[in-house]
Write the structure tokens for this entry.
Amino acid sequence: MIININELIKSFMTDFWLIEKKWFITCDYYKNLTRLKVYTVPYMGKEYTDDIFLKSSQRISTSKINDMSNIRQLRLRDITLQDIISNDHFTNLQSLEIWHISDEITYNQLNRFLNISSIKNIVFPFRINSKLFYDILKYNTTQISIEIYYDDLIEILRRATSHNRHQIIIELKKIKQLNLKYRFKYRQSQGLTVKQVKKICYLFSNIEQLFITDLFESNESIPLLIRKLKHLSFLCISFHKDASIRQIDISNIRQWLIDQSRTKLNENNFICKWSEIVFHRTFYLVLHFD
């Protein structure tokens, strides 16, 4: 069935809709899905995905600006410069995921599209341009938390110029909350080396809340993090079922942490929890520090 959205939108351009009710309507027609989406402006949902499906969509609206001020979570996927030159304006985002964004997009262009400076949480599932990464960190006006893969972070730093690399490191040291992950396809037999763990501690020396996912297979890295990160108040580490951390006597893990922390931990200044999710074959170690 072929849908003529130009004819459809005319039914919402009467005095009843525009003058009496002051209701503005947007129609998105996804040709490849034969799907029609009709909604009032501003968009009332809390989450929105601007991805590859939108590239084959046709949009028409009775509003000059497609107000997305209610959107709190946005996922950008396979976005090019042409995609962000649109009528969409995401002004009140709290969380943003950036998937495969074009290297030609600058911070100023992206910021006009979604007011990125006020976002509190940004997820980087894939590597982005080093300059854009730096600008996102530099110009954000909130206490931002980020989620990123270790190998992508190292690649961003490697590709940056010497000056930009130094500037990125300065901004990383301002991060208070971090979720650091590791891709299984890049997994090494022993996980990250001591040198690599020390690099994490150097880059994020002021981190307060740290989530580690599949980075460690050895138990040696845990005390190192505790000793090096002076401002750490919360640490959550997930392990795959085959990680050598399982060699630790779980019933005595609290005492093991105290012994390995070199006087930083004692019986009264931290809480330790160990849990297991059988379905995901994953183990979690959660620590709260006073």
